[in-house]
Design brief:
Layout (H helix, E strand, L loop, with lengths): L3 H7 L5 H7 L7 E3 L5 E3 L2 H5 L7 E7 L9 H14 L4 E5 L4 H5 L7 E2 L2 E4 L1 H5 L5 H21 L6 E6 L3 E3 L9 E3 L10 E3 L1 E3 L4 H8 L3 H10 L1 E5 L4 E3 L6 H8 L6 E5 L4 E4 L14 H8 L4 E5 L4 H16 L5 E6 L1 H7 L12 H21 L4 E6 L6 H12 L4 E5 L1 H4 L5 H10 L16 H12 L4 E4 L1 H12 L7 E4 L19 E10 L4 E6 L18 E2 L5 E2 L3
Parallel strand pairs: 3-16, 3-17, 4-15, 4-16, 8-11, 17-18, 18-19, 20-22, 21-23
Antiparallel strand pairs: 1-2, 2-14, 5-6, 6-14, 7-12, 9-10, 12-13, 14-15, 22-23, 24-25
Helix pairs in contact: 4-17, 7-8, 7-10, 9-10, 13-14, 14-15
Length: 556
Amino acid sequence: MLTDIAIAQACEKQHIREVAKTAGIDEKYLEQYGNYKAKVDYSLLQDRADRPDGKLILVTAITPTPAGEGKTTTTIGLADGLRKIGKNVMVALREPSLGPVFGIKGGAAGGGYAQVVPMEDINLHFTGDFHAIGAANNLLAAMIDNHIHQGNALRIDARRITWKRAVDMNDRALREIVVSLGGKANGFPRQDGFDITVASEIMAILCLASDITDLKARLARIVIGYDLDDRPVTAGDLHAQGAMAALLKDALKPNLVQTLEHTPAFVHGGPFANIAHGCNSVTATRMALKTGDYVVTEAGFGADLGAEKFLDIKCRMAGLTPSAVVIVATVRALKMHGGLAKTQLKNEDLAALEKGLPNLLQHVENITQVYGLPAVVAINRFPDDTEAELALVEEKCRALGVNVVLSEVWMKGGDGGKALAEEVVRLCEVPSEFRFCYEDELSLKEKIEAVAKRIYHADGVDFLAPAVKELDKLESLGYGRLPVCMAKTQYSFSDDAAKLGAPRNFRVTVRQVRISAGAGFVVVLTGDIMTMPGLPKKPAAENIDVDENGVITGLF
């Protein structure tokens, strides 16, 4: 059986100009990066302002397990399936982070015969967006320390600087560091640390900014810490926003690539959904909506993370309304939620499946009942799935009024996604009553409790003393109307990764909150979630190589 990268390298790609032509994008908007990728100038949005938006389809998933769910694969295969049935379709995806690529997760460009290409480029440096984000992040960090060294006119309290440096790599050694050692000429020593680039507020800002003017305004609002009088200090106070925006001006432009079947795809932005808001850029989504009649996009990890943030943060800020939601699941993963070990997944086990199904059903109910959106369950089929197991999933979902469709896009590409495409087209015409999980008027504590109780089904929330103090401060500073971005383990509805399925009788612990004033939300850290992951015992990097002809192997 061919690996994902072998399948991707064997495909005959179209020149990016042909892909743009399929999308109806004139060459004047293209900035080519070789033959198979290009940036699209944001002026396209201005020129297409009067064109009606297409239908927006969100692809999300059950709570992830080591068995895999195939959300990105399903997203790409669904788009190819829609094209197979004659629809004008665009894909909008996030860019992969180098951290997971070299860590444990591997690449994130789809799989099998449902991938975006050039796969190696997308998974590695691509068009340099993440490097630009890291550079802008670290420019601000350098300007903070330089300001203090040069006399500290803003009276920044060096003990209360909240802005961290960033690098797009899993590097646990950088979580907590001390900077400015080595004497007076090197500045004032203080405790510091690194976040992974995808957790940087700059990433969130880039993905939520509507244009270059909005980008600069958001950058200026970044709170970097507090002064000696306990007042917030911003990047605007340091006059950093102009230079940061200059580094980001090209990164703001969406990247155009293609699927294996030449369906046009925007791949742009890449915040993690467990520690950030987990969606591709607003610019790419809007550009896709002005280009395609159907736009298929995804949100990271399970629906309790990516979909919740897509709906409560991105849709709220950008004024977007999805027409339909696809919830991806596998029989294998549901059996793991039912307590089965990964080594036992090939065996039919209806008891384990029934025990794990509440995880899927809770995600379905959240989408249909909390958010009021029409949904379909896509079962990413594996060869070992039995008819009895598939029938049980269908029976339980139909009881909630939701159809189940088999997705075979990994093996068959767009042909394996045509049935799902037909159901999605039908759902897009179903009237919906889209609503948020919480309203702007609630306090920050009430918003956190709404997500914990309505989405996670927790009994309540326990706020540690530092979190209470910071929440009260943020309310007093006027940030109370912002949405909340929950940083939580992706492996459970709870904040405990060991609680699989659909746990009950638990509480969520909030240990810390951070203001992301530029992005426009409050980050809520729960449990033991970290903003800088580490590499596993055997990182994927050990299996990645390149030969004398420049051909890369090991990226799945």
